[in-house]
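In the current project phase, our protein records have gained a structure token line. A sample record follows, to show the layout:
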Amino acid sequence: MARSDSARGNLWLAKELWELGAVQFGEFNIGRTLRSPIYLNPRLLVSSPQTLSRVARVIKEETETMLSMRNPGVSPFSLVAGVPFGGLHLATAFSLVSKVPLIYLHPRKDGSGDVIEGNFLPGQTVLVIDDLITGGTSVVETAQVLRSAGLLVRDAIVLVDRHQQGKERLRANGINLHAMLEVTTLLNYLMSHGKISEEDFRRSTDYLAHPEHRET
């Protein structure tokens, strides 16, 4: 997501996800999403420390660039929070390279909700990080818990945006979404490089293009 990377649509990330086996085609029921012809599993980045480190560096570089603009593209933040569980390893990697303290949600043993692990003060602004966004429910729910503790959430960064109303839902909840890679860019890369069939490409793009394919 640094300028040189974003100018190419972060195609290096599309390539890495494919080579890690994090992109599959078929028919999948994924949480609230039913009969999806494409399955994305960015959690496999933990199998490639070099790629995970690069992701963290690119997020750091891009947030620094956005903060330096005359009209900043991201609000200043003093904490980073990973969305359980897919975003936690990304937020941890980002925290290590950026030196921004990390907090995260941990379910209470009695099942009564989540506790926020890590030190924080009410009024601090938190950058939320997740690996994948579909309808936006996980990011919004994380933001609600953080906000209930007096923290401010204005921006979220995700590895891949599936283009299934997640950006719109976040905007309705006062959160700006920044995606490293759009699923359409990923599909175009795979198709143009002969890595997937035209049938898988068409099924996936048709699925994503229809508004009825959303989170339930």
